[in-house]
Amino acid sequence: MPGLELFHRVSEPDSAEARRRVLALGLEGRVAFRNVEFPSHRDALAARGGGDTPALWDGARLHAGAAAVLAALAAAAAEERGAATRSAPLRPAPAALADAGGAPRLVPTSLHSADEPDLGPRGAYDRVADTRSGAAPARPHDRTYRICEEVCLGEGADRACMTYVPFARRFRGRPACLR
Asked: Distance from the CA of 107 to the CA of which of 118, 127, 135, 136 falls in 20 to 30 A?
C-alpha cells in the first residue's frame, strides 16, 4: 500500500486532531508527518496543490481540511485492515478524542449512483466511515446521483458531505466541480 503524507502545523488544533487520529487508527507506520513550518515540507504541500493544513496526500490526491483528512485516514485504516485480515479489529479512538467534538461521526468516503454500469449483483452503495471506530461499511441504496451532486449525512456540526463524480470522470473529462 502506498505511503501517506500528513501536512500539518504543530500548533493548529485540526492538525493535532489529525495526528491523534493517525495513532488511534494504527497508521503510524504508513503516514509520514510533514510539519509545514519547515520550508521543504511547505514546498512539498504547495507542489501537490495545497496550502492549508491539515492536508493528506495519498499518492494520487490531496485531501484538504480536517473532515476530508479524517475521512481519508478512516478509509486508509479500513483498507489496510481489509488487506491484512478480514477480522482484525481497528483500535478504537481514545474516549477523549471521540468526545472532543471534532469531526462528524459519519463521513461518506465513496459514492455509487444506482445508474452506474458494472455495479454487480449488490447494486448501488455508498461507503461511510465512522470517525470513532474507523469502520467503513458499504450502505446499499437505490438513489441516482447527478454529477457534482453534494451527498450529505447528518446535520449541524455532525454534517459531512461528499461530491459525487463517477470514477470514469475523475481523471478524464473532469466536470467543473473538480477543476
From this structure: 118
